[in-house]
Amino acid sequence: MPFLSTTVTWRSPKGRYTHHRSVGQDATIVPCSDMSGTILTVGPGVTQWAAGDRVLSTFLPEHQTGQVSEKHLALGLGLPLDGVLATHRVFPAYSLVRTPDYLTDEEACTLPIAAVTAWMSINGMRPLGQSGGKDEYILLQGTGGVAIAGLQIAKAAGAKVIITSSSDAKLDRAKQLGADATINYRTNPDWELAVTQVTDGHGADIILETGGAQTLRKSFDCIAFGGLIDCIGYVSGKVDATDDRLNVNLLALRRNVTLKGILNGPKDRFEEMLQFYQTHQIHPVVHRSFPFSEAPEAFRFLESGSHFGKVVIRVQ
Ligand SMILES: NC(=O)c1ccc[n+]([C@@H]2O[C@H](COP(=O)([O-])OP(=O)(O)OC[C@H]3O[C@@H](n4cnc5c(N)ncnc54)[C@H](OP(=O)(O)O)[C@@H]3O)[C@@H](O)[C@H]2O)c1
Questions:
Q1: Quick check: CB of 233 below 6 Å from ligand 1?
Q2: 184 ligand 1 Cβ < 6 A
Q3: Which stretches make up the Enoyl reductase (ER) domain (predicted)?
Q4: Which CATH number applies to 3-110+284-314: 3.30.413.10, 3.20.20.70, 3.40.640.10, 3.90.180.10?
Q5: Average pLDDT, the chain
């Protein structure tokens, strides 16, 4: 399969993906965990795909439905298996999903990790086929890939979106995408109070916790009673500060909170999400696209944090 586009993900290049038992890191690995490509040829017995079909990879090819487990993680693309920043790659036929016709490859390649993760954060606790979010307050942290996918999904679902960022310019872009309330977490470090205020004391029903160490405590202070905090990432660090750390047990019970770890999502939920994208004609936000020859630049650009949404590498 010749690749057209792949998004830049930090799973392996920084050596920080060390918290799964089955996921060791070799000295060298092909990076990137999601791609959109075109099938060049199919193996014997493959009937669902044909040469020329446009397809998307899934991050955990064996995770087709239900609960993720160690055996799925042990076969992740981009860690521990080689990823997708390559001109050709062989995939199991059952691991691929069809790229929606209305999306370009550059748009579509952003979906398998960031968008599926956002989708699961908003809908993973609801039964398959019953996505929701209407009238819920959904809080997004920062303006990276997961948060901006979350913004697009939440607004299409009819939710009320609050988003934080270190940049007023990025918050303006978020408003253009429909964000109802924006908070600069640099100039307003007590952003959890602002969340409580803009929700009239209700708090956020769902929080996409991508911040980690420096944000989780604040998320507990602005979550609604009965709300859901999705533990997704750790852009602000992986180790708690030593002060002001009330026990998580207490923090969770205080407002009857559900704390849910998110690990991407299964293929059937990805397909459910693609139907939703199709219905609402959602176009993922690609901030910048780099040619294959400039892949290292793409990683440096991502690390600089100047992006809004996703960064893409065009392989061909
Ligand atoms: N669990 C999963 O399945 C899963 C899947 C995908 C990603 N992740 C993880 O989720 C996190 C986000 O991923 P991503 O792809 O969206 O990353 P990304 O595109 O690199 O987004 C990073 C953004 O986070 C914001 N940020 C940085 N420091 C922050 C802080 N202290 N407080 C609040 N926001 C902060 C910044 O937004 P501004 O520039 O607007 O300030 C930055 O642009 C990463 O840790 C990633 O590893 C987990």
A1: yes
A2: no
A3: 5-313
A4: 3.90.180.10
A5: 93
d(CA 26, CA 234) in angstroms, rounded, equals 22
CB 9 within 8 A of CB 113: yes
Q: Comparing C-alpha atoms, which of 7, 55, 54 is closest to residue 31?
A: 7
State if residue 138 touches ligand 1 by the CB under 6 angstroms criterion: no
As a whole number of angstroms, the distance between CA 3 and CA 295 comes to 14
- Residue 243 identity (one-letter amino acid): D
What tokens were used for 212? 């980690």
| pLDDT per position as a tens digit, 233-269 | 999 888 887 776 789 999 999 999 999 999 999 999 9
- State the Cα–Cα distance between residues 93 and 272, nearest whole angstrom: 19
Tell the residue nearest (CA) to atom 19 of ligand 1.
144
Q: How far is the CA of 99 from the centre of ligand 1 (A)?
A: 25
CATH topology of domain 117-261: Rossmann fold (3.40.50)
The model's pLDDT over 174-193, given as tens digits with 9 standing for 90+, comes to 999 999 999 999 999 999 99
3-110+284-314 against 117-261: fold identical = no
In the chain, which residue ranges form alpha helices assigned H by DSSP? 70-73, 105-108, 116-123, 145-157, 168-176, 191-198, 216-222, 248-254, 267-280, 295-304
> Which amino acid would we find at residue 93?
A
Q: What does the alpha-carbon distance between residue 240 and residue 290 come to, in Å, rounded to a whole number?
A: 35
Measured CA to CA, the distance from residue 287 to residue 165 in angstroms comes to 16
| Residue 167: HSE in the Cβ half-sphere, 13 Å Cα cutoff | 12
Centroid of ligand 1 to alpha carbon of 42 (angstroms):
36
Cα(186)–Cα(175) distance, rounded to whole angstroms? 18
Say how far apart CA 4 and CA 200 lie, in whole Å.
46
Closest-lying ligand 1 atom to the alpha carbon of residue 215: 32
**Residue 206 · residue 119 · CB < 8 Å:** no
